[in-house]
Amino acid sequence: MLEALEQLLLPSECTLCHALLSFRNHRRLVCDLCRHRWRAVCPPWCERCGQPEPLFGPCRLCAPWPDAFSTARSAVWLESGARAAIHALKYRGLPRVADELAEAVARIPIPGRERAWLVPVPLGPRRQRERGYNQSERLARALGRRWQRPVADLLVRVRDTAAQTALTPEARLANVAGAFEVRNRSPETPGSRPGSGESGLESRLTPGASPGSLPWPPLILVDDVFTTGATLAEAARALAQAGARTILAVTFGRAVLPDFS
User: Fold this and answer.
1) What's the pLDDT at 194?
2) Are residues 12 and 138 in the same domain?
3) Phi and psi at residue 34, to the nearest 5°
């Protein structure tokens, strides 16, 4: 009754359009109409990177990716309402919006996800301090609860990188080169609750030991936005060098590629 009274006096509203939410949906941050307006990314697409454009010959976008990085998919196009949702998550201090985004990402059909671990793409130290949280980590944990898969913080970003908005695909790759390293940890059978704060990992590598000699589960990188895939490819490269053999990726948004010609 107290909750109903609170909603009567201070009704919840949609974070994006500010429409009042019904009592049934008062715990949500995005209304049904705004979520309905998110335009799904649909095939035909490149089977590897998911870029939905007609292909004539090899796809140039994913050609430089490491061999272990096999699949990348996005839930919706990054436009209008979807972009506003990302901004709310990244810049408006609303980490709970990740639950709404994860609901869309959870519908992406990813092969072998029932055995995979989710790996969030880390922020640089400065951005992490400014934001107070990593939006990709929040998205990964919300997705882990839906897919019932563990989340493993395997990566660290060892340096901050420049903003990539105006960079060409080639410049983006150069900008993030060497930006990630794998923690001095190795995969084990996860013992934590899916999507919980624990990763189910132990630091059992001795100095000089090779992570590649230990078994790795399939890994699914989780990030908020895919533009050219440069950041995901570099994160996958670090994981592959550490011994991972099957790496996939999912993002909530996919940006429309500008004309770099």
Assistant:
1) 58
2) no
3) -65, -40
Kindly state the percentage of the chain with pLDDT values over 90.
55
In a domain, 148, yes or no: yes
Structural domain including 21 reads 1-37
In a shared domain, residues 44 and 172: yes
pLDDT at 195: 62
CA–CA distance, 226 with 239 (Å, rounded to integer): 18
Residue 186 falls inside a structural domain: yes
Count of structural domains, the chain:
2
Residues 126-130, mean pLDDT to the nearest whole number:
88
